[in-house]
Amino acid sequence: MKLSQAVDLYIQRKQDAGLRFVSPTNRLRSLLRHCGDTDLHRITTQHVTAFLDGSGSMPSGWNGKRGTLRTFFDYWTARGRLKSSPLPSSAPKVTQSFIPYIYSRSDLRSLLDAVPRGQRRAACVMSEGTFRTLLLFLYATGMRLGEALRLRLADVDLTLGIVTIRDTKFYKSRLVPLGPDIERLTRQYLYQPGRRNQPYRSLFQTKSGNPIPAQVAGTSFSRLRRIAGIARRDDSYFQPRLHDLRHTFAVHRLTEWYRQNADVQRLLPALSTYLGHVDLSATQRYLTMTPELLQQANRRFEQYACGGADER
Fold first, then answer.
1. pLDDT at position 41 over 60
2. Average pLDDT rounded to a whole number, residues 249-260
3. Is 79 in the active site?
């Protein structure tokens, strides 16, 4: 049996069973392009390893491809077309730990300045004003993208300056107060021409008034980041993400507390609650050390060591 025949039959049977099977189909077609239309039983572990590694695949991509190939080869092994699976026995060791990207204020200005260029194509389902408001809203509130996109107008009380987030990641609801700047921006956004402001509708809408899919927001941000020239300068697999605005919010808030000589230890539980975390350990993962944060922490330590301020 040729590899092309094995791939076609396998995909067809999965789809006949009612599966959409989009990502696995793309991976198996990619395997076929990589190996050529050789006999199925001639596929070796070396072939599969080279395909999995690709051009420096990220760990998540490696595992996704491996999972698809494991079920594919097991399927044909069980039917006697293969004596054994050519899949490598284990994943590569990954020594690099993920570190979120903390946007500087200069980065944030560059992103906002690039929004008109990023959204000028007629095919963009989000307007320039919607995308700009969404970015500022995520940064100003520290919300998860999914939380912001699920907000309905009924969840937003601009009179009290409070947003209700329902059924969050940990199946709890919480209230998030809005600062005066983001409250004013949100109010202006709601009065944009063409919006549909019925209570049941989404706060953030496409040009046609529908909810914005998370994939659309993520793809739009990737394009925006490239236009703005925001990129990592280290060896990380991961480029700056939309979700990193949440990390940035936490780090900038902590930095500002240090600058104000606030009682950081007392305020950390409040930050954890605000972010919707169940404990402080979850919040600590958001507090990436930046030069500015380190400077403020060192200043606080020097004040304490020299007796210039009470320990806080």
1. yes
2. 88
3. no
